[in-house]
Design a protein that fits this description.
- This protein has 177 residues and is α/β, with parallel strands linked by helices.
- The protein has 2 domains: 2-123, 2-Layer Sandwich (Transcription Regulator spoIIAA); 124-177.
- It has 7 helices and 6 strands; from the N terminus they run E-E-E-H-H-E-H-E-H-E-H-H-H.
- The protein is globular and about 55 Å long.
C-alpha cells in the first residue's frame, strides 16, 4: 500500500517478521512531517514493533525527528517500539548530532532491524563527533559503507569546526547590540 502524503515525501507500509515496516521516500520536513507520520500513529497505539526504513529518505529535519520520537514514545507506552533503519549520510548526520544513534535506535538495514525488533543494539561510547562516527562504524551499529573513504569523519570534523566557530562568534558578539 503506497500513500502520497504531501509533495516531497511518500510512504509505503508493509509487514516483515512480525513488524510494521514503513518506508519513507523523499524529504521529510516541518511542512510534511505531521501528515506523513500520521500513518505511524495507529500501529504505534496498537503496540506494534515499527521499523522506519530511511534508505530512500533524502532529508529529514529536527522537527520531523521529534515527531518520530513522539511516535516511538507512543509505541513504547503501548508495549511496542519504533526503530530506524538504513539512513542516508545526511539523515545519519542528524541522528548522530541529536544523539539518536547513541540510544541504539538506528540499524544498518530493515532486515537487521526486523530481526532485532524490540532489542535495538547497544550504543557505543561516543567521544566527539569524529570519534563517534568511527566508533559507530566499528561497532557494527552502522554500516562501514556509510563511512567509506572517511566521509563521515570529514563531515563530523567539519560540523564540529562550524559549531565551534559559531559558538565563538556568538560569544564574541554577545552584548554588542
Amino acid at each position: 500500500m503506497t500513500a502520497r502524503a504531501m509533495p516531497g515525501v511518500s510512504i509505503e507500509k508493509s509487514a516483515r517478521a512480525g513488524c510494521v515496516v514503513v518506508a519513507l521516500r523523499g524529504e521529510l520536513d516541518v511542512c510534511t512531517a505531521a501528515e506523513s507520520l500520521s500513518a505511524l500513529t495507529a500501529p504505534a497505539a496498537a503496540g506494534a514493533s515499527i521499523v522506519v526504513d530511511l534508505t530512500e529518505l533524502a532529508f529529514m529535519d529536527c522537527y520531523s525527528l521529534g515527531k518520530l520520537m513522539e511516535v516511538r514514545a507512543q509505541a513504547r507506552r503501548a508495549g511496542g517500539d519504533l526503530v530506524l533503519a538504513g539512513p542516508q549520510p545526511i539523515v545519519l548526520r542528524l541522528l548522530v548530532l541529536c544523539a539518536v544513534v547513541s540510544h541504539g535506535l538506528v540499524h544498518t538495514s530493515v532486515d537487521e532491524a526486523a530481526s532485532g525488533a524490540g532489542s535495538a543494539p547497544a550504543a557505543p561510547a561516543m567521544s566527539g563527533a569524529a570519534g563517534g562516527a568511527v566508533s559507530l562504524a566499528r561497532s557494527g551499529i552502522l554500516s562501514s559503507a556509510l563511512f567509506s573513504g572517511g566521509t563521515a569523519v570529514r563531515h563530523a570534523r567539519m560540523l564540529t569546526g562550524l559549531i565551534t566557530a559559531a559558538g565563538r562568534k556568538r560569544h564574541d558578539g554577545a552584548g554588542t547590540h
